[in-house]
């Protein structure tokens, strides 16, 4: 009985199969190759790397603007005409795209680490380009329609830059293992110089980044300015429906410095609070007055406004994701809120709370189009909080100074000091992206220097170790040379490798038959 014994045994390489299979659908051993990656695949790797950094910035943007998700929804509401929480699908889609690109990049780096030829599958190429194009289009749209939020990203770096710097430094230091390995494998001095120059440029730039960081998070406590005063925008809109009596009551309970309210005059001359031009978003006007849902809110009599519910939308839409945290009593109270009179709100806040007032322009055919300022001023003065009112509208400032000289004239425009004095402006009401602070960092120097030194020592050590490991142990696998014959490689490189293999075989005492076979291959 003849017993057959396999000529060669291949150990299973499950991890390597998964690596090359997921990235390029190369699940079989014969599909893999240790040859150099083609220029076309290197281009795809460059596109993948660029997409990673682009989606990283995009994901960071949406993560940091979480405090303004309601503004996004309100902006889209004005554009589309109906209310929906767009922040969740946008954030989920962005996170999914970033995760997908990150996984592909990690797989590509693993290919480099184990010396496998990269070959991105065509389905991944379609997914990569779809993600890249979608990100570019949405970033361009946001830059045009909502450019103020991009300034917020730079402001957020005042808090996150010190920590992002440490993370980036750790990532670049970890990449030194791959860079050093590629550096040691390269045979051309020009390629080595280009790689090491590019890598060192990135490392040095990261080492010097802290010189540009200005963050109150790393300042001494004594160097910090006074704690900013908190003003409730439309009351406390996270705890109750905006511009309702409950919202301002919650704001007062939080002991804030002041509140801001939007004032409109009803058709019969009653000042009430409403931000939007219509009642659709914050009331049930479509149910009570379906034929008047798109009318300006000032065209309703107060008796009609009293019939509307101004709280159910808050529980249904949950604009700040806080409705679920309300107590049972607060939940029921919010559900029964109605449109709030200016006089009722003033009664709640008049003791110790300041007030910023903003007004909507009335339609020209409104009966109080020319006198709404006078009516509003009378209502405010009757409440007794004259000294605490910050007057924001630019219209009729001279009239306001005559009737209520104690009002604090406030502007929403960032003008130079001379023009502000000419207008009699004593306060500014600016978006947080328009406020600057030039205080330099006082600490963080020790952490910065220590991190740079540790990174430098690790990088140098990795380069030395990789050079020793890969430079002193050069082996040539006959299977690799034979299987790579069909791969695009210069004949000179193949000839050199085969000659080295022959001499290596002679030193190791290979049989004459094996050497002749290899010599025959080298002559092909």
Care to give the gist of this entry?
Keywords: Cytoplasm, Glycoprotein, Hydrolase, Membrane, Transmembrane, Transmembrane helix. The chain is mostly helical. Helices cover 55% and strands 6% of the residues.
Give the helix/strand layout:
Blueprint: H1 14-24, H2 39-64, H3 69-80, H4 87-114, H5 122-145, H6 148-174, H7 176-185, H8 189-208, E1 231-233, H9 245-253, E2 258-265, E3 271-273, H10 285-288, H11 302-305, H12 312-317, H13 328-335, H14 342-349, E4 354-359, H15 372-383, E5 389-391, H16 397-403, E6 408-411, H17 417-423, E7 427-428, H18 445-472, H19 478-483, H20 491-508, H21 512-522
Parallel strand pairs: 1-2, 2-4, 4-5, 5-6, 6-7
Antiparallel strand pairs: 2-3
Main location: cytoplasm
GO molecular function, one term: glycerophosphodiester phosphodiesterase activity
Domain GP-PDE: 228-494
Would you give an account of this structure?
By secondary structure, the chain is mainly alpha-helical. The protein has helices spanning 14-24, 39-64, 69-80, 87-114, 122-145, 148-174, 176-185, 189-208, 245-253, 285-288, 302-305, 312-317, 328-335, 342-349, 372-383, 397-403, 417-423, 445-472, 478-483, 491-508, 512-522; strands at 231-233, 258-265, 271-273, 354-359, 389-391, 408-411, 427-428. It folds into three domains: 14-217 and 440-472, no CATH class; 231-434, Phosphatidylinositol (PI) phosphodiesterase (TIM Barrel), CATH 3.20.20.190; 478-522, no CATH class. It is built from 21 helices and seven strands. Strands 1, 2, 3, 4, 5, 6 and 7 form a seven-stranded mixed sheet that branches. Helix 1 (14-24) crosses helix 4 (87-114) and helix 7 packs antiparallel against helix 8.
């Amino acid at each position: 009985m003849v017993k057959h014994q396999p000529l060669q045994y291949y150990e299973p390489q499950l991890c390597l199969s998964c690596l090359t299979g997921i990235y390029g659908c190369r699940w079989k051993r014969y599909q893999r190759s240790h040859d150099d990656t083609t220029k076309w695949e290197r281009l795809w790797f460059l596109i993948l790397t660029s997409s990673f950094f682009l989606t990283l910035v995009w994901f960071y943007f949406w993560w940091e603007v979480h405090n303004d998700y309601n503004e996004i929804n309100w902006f889209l509401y004005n554009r589309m005409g109906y209310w929906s929480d767009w922040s969740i699908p946008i954030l989920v889609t962005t996170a999914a795209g970033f995760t997908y690109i990150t996984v592909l990049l990690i797989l590509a780096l693993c290919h480099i680490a184990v010396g496998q030829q990269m070959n991105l599958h065509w389905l991944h190429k379609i997914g990569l380009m779809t993600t890249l194009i979608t990100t570019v289009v949405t970033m361009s749209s946001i830059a045009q329609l909502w450019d103020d939020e991009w300034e917020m990203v730079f402001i957020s770096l005042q808090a996150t830059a010190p920590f992002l710097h440490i993370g980036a430094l750790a990532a670049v230091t970890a990449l030194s293992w791959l860079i050093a390995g590629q550096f040691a494998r390269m045979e051309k001095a020009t390629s080595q110089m280009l790689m090491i120059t590019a890598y060192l440029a990135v490392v040095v730039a990261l080492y010097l980044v802290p010189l540009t960081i200005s963050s109150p998070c790393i300042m001494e406590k004594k160097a910090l300015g006074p704690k900013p005063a908190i003003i409730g925008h439309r009351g406390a809109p996270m705890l109750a429906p905006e511009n309702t009596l409950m919202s301002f009551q919650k704001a007062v309970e939080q002991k804030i410095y002041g509140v801001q309210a939007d004032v409109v005059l009803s058709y019969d001359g009653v000042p009430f609070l409403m931000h939007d031009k219509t009642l659709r978003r914050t009331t049930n006007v479509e149910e009570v007055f379906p034929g008047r849902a798109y009318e300006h809110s000032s065209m309703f009599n107060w008796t009609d406004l009293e019939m509307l519910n101004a709280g159910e939308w808050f529980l249904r839409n949950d604009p700040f994701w806080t409705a679920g945290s309300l107590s049972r009593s607060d939940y029921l109270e919010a559900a029964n809120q109605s449109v709030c009179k200016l006089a009722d709100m003033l009664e709640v806040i008049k003791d110790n709370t300041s007030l910023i007032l903003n007004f909507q322009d009335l339609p020209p055919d409104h009966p109080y189009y020319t006198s709404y300022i006078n009516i509003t001023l009378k209502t405010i003065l009757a409440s007794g909080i004259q000294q605490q009112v910050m007057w924001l509208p630019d219209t009729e400032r001279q009239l306001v100074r005559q009737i209520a000289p104690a009002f604090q004239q406030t502007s929403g425009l960032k003008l130079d000091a001379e023009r502000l004095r000419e207008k009699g402006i004593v306060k500014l009401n600016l978006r947080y992206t328009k406020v600057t602070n030039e205080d330099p960092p006082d600490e963080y120097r020790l952490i910065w220097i220590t991190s740079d030194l540790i990174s430098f020592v690790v990088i140098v050590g990795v380069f030395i170790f990789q050079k020793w490991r890969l430079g002193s142990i050069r082996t040539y696998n006959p299977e690799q040379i034979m299987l790579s014959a069909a791969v695009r490689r210069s004949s000179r490189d193949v000839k050199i490798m085969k000659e080295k293999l022959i001499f290596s075989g002679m030193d190791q005492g290979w049989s004459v038959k094996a050497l002749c076979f290899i010599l025959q291959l080298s002559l092909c």
